[in-house]
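Late entry, evening session. Most of the bench is empty. Finally got around to the prediction I had been postponing all week. Sequence below, unchanged from the version circulated by S.P.
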Amino acid sequence: MSDQLWTQLRDGIQAQLAHSNDEGAARALAIAEAAGLPAARTEGWRYSPLRLLARALRPAADRGEAAPIPDLAMRVPGESDLPDFEAGPAQTEDQSRGAGRAFAWLARASGCRLLTLSGRSTKPVYLNPLVDLDSSLPHRHQQVQIAAGADLTVIEHYRGDQSGSFANLLQQISLGEGAVVHWLRLVEAGAPDHLIVRSEFDLAAGARLIHHSLELGGAWSRHDLQFRLAGEQAELISRGLLPMAGKRHADTQLEVIHALGNTRSQMGWRGVAADRSRAVFNGRILIQAGADGSDAALNTASLLLSPHAEIDAKPELEIYADAVKAAHGAAIGQLDPQALFYMRSRGLPEAQARQLLMASFCRHALEDLPADLIAAIEPRVDLAIDALNQGEKA
């Protein structure tokens, strides 16, 4: 299976290289091939086997136009649909070449697109990372450089007529000194059925990133999410929501690296699994040597709504510095039967009581979003909660 899958993943890149002399892309493809695809026992991938990918592999082609957040986000030519990227620099070597990074190297081999954002904006910048993705080349590598002192909101949106498709994305985002960024990642129904994304954020001194990830759609997804606090006084707030129903599968691998001292990170993620779905969350905090004064906290909470659903949550801490504050915790449970009883005793139907409890639980993931974004996102979250409730009644 792995040989067949590798051939499918590689063919488009090889066809592209046949018409170019891009040594960086050729090197990246060679590194990906040497690394090999992750197997069932590969660390970090054992909950997300790739066997379904070989059967369902079809590039993210013939999709409809992504639906923007209505009356809220702006589309900037060259900055929203990203059609006019300049070619990025030649692929750089990466320190990690294990099987878990093969998909990132495949994305590097597809070439690089570069986007620069600066200044201040009262409206979010809307990004559809998969726009104009070639049907024969389902890989993409994009770099986003946010200038020092910028104050922006960015919406990274996955939606369209992509049912049955596959896409593999590597994106590297750098925040300059003192930049303040609200970044919303929104995956909705119509996103590629099989979506693999690696997102790498690098925060310079004094930068502040408020990052939200909402996995509301897609059949099978894998998201490697890395934040590197590379400058003093850099600050990260990361929140996420995985509401899973049906047979959906979502795997989030979160890593926060405190590279310098006097940096702060706070992570709070929520997961809900109904029917035969599966939610995977692995959160790792790494405080490197010399990063004294770091302050990091990771908390995950999950609801298991079905005996056939599964939630796998694991927080990790690695500390190589002194005088730091670090904490982590994970909790998995069910809807509070006493709260349900209380609400039903006040005349609420059981379905409505469940709906309200799940909504209250899930909306914690929306904390720290701007008010106008919350108003636009809540109806979409409510639809995901409806799907959870329908599964419970089935």
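Two things to note before I forget:
Residues 2-334 form one domain.
Helices lie at 2-17, 23-35, 51-56, 102-109, 337-345, 350-362, 371-393.
Will write this up properly tomorrow.
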